Amino acid sequence: MAESTRLVDLVQTAADRFLADRESELAEIADELQPFGGFARDLLAGGKRFRALFCYWGWQSVRSLVDPLDPLPTDDRSSEFEAVIQACTALEFFHAAALVHDDLMDNSDTRRGLPSVHRRFESLHAKAGWSGRSARFGRSGALLLGDLLLGWSDELLDAGLALLADPSVARAARVEFGRMRTEVTVGQYLDILEEAAWAEHSETDQLSRAHRVILFKSAKYSIEAPLALGAALGGASLPQLESLRSFGRPLGVAYQLRDDLLGVFGDPAQTGKPAGDDLREGKRTVLIALARSRLSGGARRALDELLGDPELDGQQVTMLQSTIRDSGAVEQVERIIEHNVSLAQSAVADAPLTRAAREQLSRLAERVTQRTS
Q1: pTM of the full predicted structure?
Q2: Which of 132, 178, 218, 257 has the smallest number of Cβ neighbours within 10 A?
Q3: All domains of the chain in start order, with CATH
Q4: Degrees (nearest 5) of the Cα angle 302, 308, 314?
Q5: 73, 65 in Cβ contact below 8 A?
Q6: 28 falls in which pLDDT band (50, 70, 90)?
Q7: Ramachandran region of residue 247, left (φ > 0), alpha (ψ -120 to 50) or beta?
Q8: pLDDT value of position 302
Q9: Average pLDDT, integer, range 141-146
């Protein structure tokens, strides 16, 4: 794990350096732009860096270093390594943008133990006593910061791709990044669509549609796409890419299913979000679809009536948690997680990838699906 720890440090250093440069540019425009840099810095100072780690190990799986415990090569691959660090950092900026927009759409109050970005802009407006509505100012400020982070992620990726000697490798990496960006954006739309239109579909359809949201909003974006991006940077062959996709897709599903459980049952002290936040937001997840399919008519109606109420109190959250747990849906989701982790592990057991990378990917599979935050 020493290499992964050092990678996280290198990505943080690259993010800090980039933000320092952009904060200088913002300061030249106007002093009032300081919140953009400050809020972005807070967002990028936290998180588990899973996307960066999977990108790095996607690269390592096809381009082994001389010493796998020292990620700083001294040979002619140093420029390629720096390109990988830039790509990993670009993924972190893209993820930060997605979090800002996601919190805005979900009307979330917190993120990583701090007020969400739109709440921070809202507070800025309220404390200054500016004209207009603080909530509107907050939403507008967050939307703009999210867009800015998206643009910055592209700048970081382009800077990394410019370091590569082979233009075809750069093009392949850019294609992977673009595909990821499209998939997560439309996946986010499918998510809000299910929250609004779930009643139009049968119980069976609701489950399959919830799986579709998982695949495009999170599974591919969180693990498969970073792996493919890293592998593309290393000039991966088609069999290598297919092996990584076969690993990343089921693991991404398991990752999001764990996230769904944490969204309902997670400890706020560890998740940085209020207890039962997904219940207040009305998330139509696989967990909810499975629970509804197992509940009696009265219990199902009670779940439907309360799910998505932003004013749910602690007692109501506890009641919904008990209803979902008593349905047996939690145990079924745990079995699905276990099955998908097994599929992922099998996909890389004998894959045409470096031994060190296969071992690290196996460890990461356990880490991302057994987490408590």
Answers
A1: 0.92
A2: 132
A3: 1-46+77-165 (1.10.600.10), 186-373 (1.10.600.10)
A4: 75
A5: yes
A6: very high
A7: alpha
A8: 92
A9: 98
Q: What is the pLDDT of residues 262-311, one digit of tens each?
A: 999 998 888 878 888 899 989 999 999 999 999 998 999 999 999 999 99
pLDDT at residue 71 is higher than 80: no
The amino acid sitting at 161 is L
Three-class DSSP labels, the chain:
CHHHHHHHHHHHHHHHHHHHHHHHHHHHHCHHHHHHHHHHHHHHCCCCCHHHHHHHHHHHCCCCCCCCCCCCCCCCCHHHHHHHHHHHHHHHHHHHHHHHHHHHHHCCCEECCEECHHHHHHHHHHHHCCCCCHHHHHHHHHHHHHHHHHHHHHHHHHHHHCCCCCHHHHHHHHHHHHHHHHHHHHHHHHHHHHHHHHHHCCHHHHHHHHHHHHHHHHHHHHHHHHHHHHHHHCCCCHHHHHHHHHHHHHHHHHHHHHHHHHHHHCCHHHHCCCCCHHHHHCCCCHHHHHHHHHCCHHHHHHHHHHCCCCCCCHHHHHHHHHHHHHCCHHHHHHHHHHHHHHHHHHHHHCCCCCHHHHHHHHHHHHHHHCCCC
Q: Please tell me the distance from the alpha carbon of residue 39 to that of residue 61, in angstroms, as a whole number.
A: 35
Residue type, 291: A
- CA 147 to chain CA centroid, Å, is 17
d(CA 51, CA 56): 9
Q: Which of 30, 281, 268, 19 is nearest to 148 (CA)?
A: 19
Note the pLDDT tens digit of each residue in 151-185.
Answer: 999 999 999 999 999 999 999 999 999 999 999 99
Joined together, the tokens standing for residue 343 give 């599929």
